[in-house]
Write a structure and sequence with these properties.
The protein contains six helices and no strands. It is mainly α. It has one domain. The N and C termini lie far apart (about 60 Å).
Amino acid sequence: MTDVLHLEAASAEHPTWERLEAQIGWYDRASETAQRSYRGIKLIQIVTAAVIPVLAGVDAPVWAVGGLGSLIVALEGIQQLYQFQEHWINYRSTCESLRREKALFLAGAGTYGAATRPLLVLAERIEGLLGQEVQKWTVTQEQAHDFGVPENSELGR
């Protein structure tokens, strides 16, 4: 128990620990924001899609029915452009991986138990996780870019 308290006290002001805490906070907030955006868009799409047949059945103006159909398409385009679902999943995964490293570090478990410099190991593992996240983010940005721009288009350069 004193080893855990010693590790916690020694790391509280360390730049590695501060980075870990800051990144956990950022990924937690970013995941929640992306989740709310994704679910909000999907909820609007579902409700709108349910209203269209009702409006068509009561002979609503064609522009109203068509406008709601266009809204569904536009919302799906926004989702594809901003990749809210992918970001939500990736950010949550990274956040939970960082939390796992924190728990292992504080418990002196896993790699940290045998390490002579556990904060150095923590720093390396944090940066490895963050590097993986950057790679995932780059892929989703490339996919979003490819969504509406033909490969041979002048805009695609």
